[in-house]
Amino acid sequence: MSAKVPFESREKIPFKTETRQILNILIHSLYSEREVFIRELISNASDALTRMQFELLTNRDVLDADAEAGIWVSGDPQAKTLTIRDNGIGMDAQEMAENLGTIAHSGARAFIEAAAEQPGAISDIIGQFGVGFYSAFMAAESIEVVSRSYHPGGTAARWVAQDEETFSIQPAEKADRGTIIVIHLKEDAQEFAQEDRLREIIRKHSDFIPHPIFLGSSTEPVNQQSAIWRKQPSTLKNEDYTNFYRQFTLDHQEPLLKLHLTVDAPVQMYALLYVPQSPERSIFSPRKDEGVKLYARKVLIQEYSKDLLPAYLRFVDGVVDSEDLPLNVARESVQSNRVMAQLKRVITNKLVDALNTLGKEQPEKYAQFWKVYSRYIKEGIATDPEALVPLTPLLRFQTAKNPTGWTSLEEYTSASPSHQDKIYYLLGDNERLLASSPHLEGFKAQGTDVLLMADPLDSFVLLKLEQFDGKQLVNAAQADAPVQTVDQPEPEPETSLGEEQRSQMLERIRSVLGDRIADVRATDRLVESPARLVDADGAMKPEIQRVYRLLNQEMDAPKKVLEVNLRHPLIQRLALTAAENTVTPLVIEQLYENALLLEGSVTDPAKMIARIQDLMTAALENSHDQ
Ligand code: ADP
Ligand code: MG
User: Fold this and answer.
1) Is the CB of 36 within 6 Å of ligand 1?
2) Is 473 part of a structural domain of the chain?
3) Can you tell me whether residue 249 is helix, strand or coil?
4) Residue 578: CATH number of its domain
5) Does ligand 1 have an atom closer than 6 angstroms to the CB of 70?
6) Contact 564, 541 (CB under 8 A)
7) 312 and 358 share one domain
8) Which of 215, 247, 267 lies at the terminal end of a domain, its last residue?
9) Which of residues 365, 383, 405 is at a domain's end?
10) Where are the beta strands (DSSP E) in 77-198?
11) Domain presence at residue 312
């Protein structure tokens, strides 16, 4: 803050424009769940206490060093006020001017934008969005804050906002550390002076705040407070976990997966981890970064710890709490701590196990997970050498036999016949094209399944994944289907074409397509299709070609070999057609173009349409002659 706010004056200081905009929206909104402002004020009090605890780890030279942390909430129906007090870190006058006079955090701007975009949905926005301190204006006529910082030499100050336009700051009397917020309630907000109503609101929205909340003159906390992750899983109901999750994340959906760990060896740890239904943090989410909350003996050490999980699990949210971490770990030195490495290993293994179990026991839910998070798992395999083995069982693919479902490598191998010692895959850009690719024909004829890999990330996975369960992964475009040894039907006669006709035809194709192809040859791997394109021997592996292409590397696509099916009527016709027939080059061009299309290659549609029209004309002329 460069411009010093004249906080000592009794004059009214105008709120910043942005703040005024927000206050205006809040004051005039008819939001039925405006009770959430109490959640926001309690959460600020809790943050102030947590920051105080952290300070006390290394600094005892503070005001009221021995005070018991607490939050006190009371309503006064006669005075029409609601008061929230804490003995947290407190604020001096300057801090009040900065923290309460402006809305600095980026969320504020996002709020104004969201409100402007969907004026009808303001209630929703307020409900989910941490508008923080300002949300009190939904219920307040005016707000008064008296605070004293933990710094021993400081003095107290009073911040008052009578309306949404201005605030004032002046010196105040307050002997102890912390903050008192007095809300003078609007006429229609008198419910918030009723203690029964307050109890209900605190239980609903702030039950898991990790500090005691006292209501009225009661000395018994109204919130559960005891960290849910420190409880035995057997004592908790599913509902408890969901409630905690909702208060923790403000996500209105249920989590996709939860994992509660209480571990004693090799390292002591409580962890409660969640996989949300979506990894996107909405602007409403209180989570401002990736990472999990790290507690050492109940004290929050890191709000977004990134050292407890590998990068590919960064979508996991939750809490890790260990008794084995030294309490005085400075934030910077946390990551080099030996215990951290142990925690990371245990948590990672357990999470991967839990995902595997979900895959086996709840395939539908796992499919939901896979749809959203497959890119993280594939990223892990592609970038983290330690991840290949544990993450491979989590992979799912569409297959030629089951093109709409998800199949694991284990399911693929256990469904394959015993004579099949390989895992076949086919790479492509598009699932639908892959499922009808000519490369699959030989495999379909032998009843062999093939994994269909249409996701660009699959190419990166293939660079690392060479085998599974001792079975090599092989590209179906470059391999023969494994031949069944028993009950093998008589092979069909290849073709009635003579050697001469055959080589003439191949030569004709070669001369029409010229150097667009590496070669032309006959194949018996095709059944229904007349032709296909394959990589030339010694060409760069297709997955590597794709990786280069995806990384936008300049690379000329290597020329391919056109393989033709001599049993196909079109090819047989072609061989029997006189060399001087003018339709022949058109047919060859189109044959090649069709094969390109099936590979997902882009061709020139205008040119192709003109050619097809010529072919149609020729076909009609032909039938007219007859
Ligand atoms: P946020 O909590 O997201 O930072 P808020 O609008 O809720 O935003 O609060 C703004 C700031 O005001 C806080 O970051 C904090 O610095 C200060 N603040 C609010 N309430 C308290 C409190 N009870 N004790 C100390 N500081 C507080
Ligand atoms: Mg807040």
Assistant:
1) no
2) no
3) helix
4) 1.20.120.790
5) no
6) no
7) yes
8) 215
9) 365
10) 81-86, 140-148, 156-161, 166-172, 178-185
11) yes
Residue 156 pLDDT grade (very low, low, confident, very high; cuts 50, 70, 90) = very high
| Residues 411, 395 contacting (CB under 8 angstroms) | no
* Ligand 1 contacts CB of residue 428 (under 6 A): no
Q: Are residue 578 and residue 605 in the same domain, yes or no?
A: yes
Encoded tokens for 143: 């707000």
Task: Determine whether the shortest distance from the Cβ of 91 to ligand 1 is under 6 A.
Answer: yes
Query: In this structure, which amino acid lies at residue 168?
Result: S
C-beta 366 within 6 A of ligand 1: no
Whether residues 201 and 247 share a domain: the answer is no
86 and 63 belong to one structural domain: yes
Nearest CA to ligand 1 atom 21: 44
Residue 121 lies in domain = 10-215
Q: Which helix (H) or strand (E) holds 20?
A: helix 17-28
> Is 175 in the same domain as 291?
no
For residue 179 and ligand 1, the question of a CB distance below 6 A is answered with yes
Nearest ligand, CA 181: 1
Q: Which atom of ligand 1 is nearest to the CA of 286?
A: 3
- The bound ligand whose nearest atom lies closest to the alpha carbon of 99 is 1
- Considering the domain architecture, whether residues 79 and 129 belong to the same structural domain is answered as yes
Residues 194 and 265 in one domain: no
| CA-based max dimension of the chain | 110
Atom 1, ligand 1: residue with shortest CA distance: 132
Q: How many residues does the chain have?
A: 626
The tokens 């003439």 sit on which residue? 504
The CATH number of the domain holding residue 104 is 3.30.565.10
- Is the CB–ligand 1 distance for residue 255 below 6 Å? no
Calculate how far, in angstroms, residue 129's C-alpha sits from the geometric centre of ligand 1.
15
Q: In this structure, what token pair is assigned to residue 108?
A: 């504020």
Structural domain count of the chain = 3
**Relative to the CA of 100, which ligand 1 atom is closest?**
12
In short, whether 130's Cβ falls inside 6 Å of ligand 1 is: yes
- Ligand nearest to C-alpha 131: 1
Across the range 327-336, mean pLDDT stands at 61
pLDDT tens digits along 293-302: 888 877 777 8
Task: Report pLDDT digits (tens) over 498-529.
Answer: 888 899 999 999 999 999 999 999 998 898 99
| Top mutation candidate among 22, 55, 72, 99 for ligand 1, by most atoms within 8 Å of CB | 99
- Closest ligand to Cα 101: 1
CATH number at residue 334: 3.30.230.80
pTM of the model: 0.75
Domain-located, residue 413: no
Each residue of 23-62: pLDDT tens digit? 888 787 766 678 889 988 998 999 999 999 989 988 999 9
Tokens of 357: 């179990």
Same domain? 207 vs 336: no
Q: Rounded to 5 degrees, what are φ and ψ at 265?
A: -135, 145
139 occurs within a structural domain? yes
Out of 327-336, 443-452, 540-549, pick the least confident.
327-336
Torsion, CA 83, CA 89, CA 93, CA 99, rounded to 10: -80
Give the Å distance between the CA of 46 and the centre of ligand 2: 9
* CB 89 near ligand 1, within 6 Å: yes
